[in-house]
Design goal:
Layout: H1 21-27, E1 40-42, E2 51-54, E3 60-68, H2 75-92, E4 96-106, H3 113-129, E5 134-141, E6 146-155, E7 171-174, H4 180-188, H5 194-204, H6 210-214, E8 220-225, H7 230-242, E9 245-248, H8 259-264, H9 271-279, E10 283-285, H10 291-298, E11 306-310, H11 315-324, E12 331-337, E13 343-345
Parallel strand pairs: 4-5, 9-13, 10-13
Antiparallel strand pairs: 1-2, 2-3, 3-6, 4-6, 7-11, 7-12, 8-11, 9-12
Helix pairs in contact: 2-3, 4-5
Amino acid sequence: MSEVKLTQLSHGGGCGCKIAPSLLQQILADAGSKMPYPDLLVGTETSDDAAVYRLNDSQAIIATTDFFMPIVDDPFDFGRIAATNALSDVYAMGGTPIMALAIVGMPINKLPVETIRSILQGGESVCKSANIPLAGGHSIDSQEPIYGLVALGIVHPERLKKNSNAKDGDVLILGKGLGVGILAAALKKGALSDEGYAELVENTTRLNSVGARISEIPGVHAMTDVTGFGLLGHLLEMCKGSGMGAEILFDRVPVLPSALPLAKAGYGPGAIERNMASYGKDVHFSSQLETWQQRMLADAQTSGGLLVSVSQEHADEALDCFHKSGFADASVIGRMKADVSGVTVK
């Protein structure tokens, strides 16, 4: 077969493939009620990152699945990005992965066996880095290439971090820079530099394993990861689950350097508009913010950073933990506030 670009085989890429938040709420409208299972510590109630089931007083199992279509053309990089993204949900609950299963859908009449094998090898390399087995999975012949993982992890019930336990006055810390969706959109249009591609791959293949250590810090009340709904969407989930609002300062939000000029030039995935249409009414922007800045906050991240809600007195400890774990961009971006609704951006 002639060489085929993976991103040209799919209508979307990465977490930008996600169904828009408002439509997803309609689809899952009848699934939000608490099920009568006392050991189900996390279900669908607050749109958290994974399901969590208590096994005993000291162990709970974390279960999640994540998969998407190609965000890059290199098959090995695609596999790495998809696997890193899937494992992030375990780390976002404060847990440690223990095993993964592969989810594989490939257009076998369009892709060489070597390309498909390279995608799977990319995923295997990430699981090896996380020190877990890729123990099996399931594959189908599909019209578009799809890859991801079922990820299983473990956490002590007392160290479990939901997205719904933020407290008034908590400091908000974001672990990675924004702009992945913008870089990916530029790549698909042939406008991404080699430096930009390197930033894209480095950011999306950096495991959020720091989440397990963050969960041990006193005063860390809530945690989630920023993916397809953008920073605003996942922060709004934290706000709604916790029954309060938030205030963030755009100038403190880390942004990937190569994404800045592209954002100002109007690049970005269609997911930005879908996200803004879904939750824009709950976001209050300062009149001083430009359109590109607003769009950046709704940009669909793939394998994005952890968003942590931590008490003021332990914020420096949490930030130091990020920095010592290789997350140099981690920054304090705002705080939770009980006297406001939605998210205010200044």
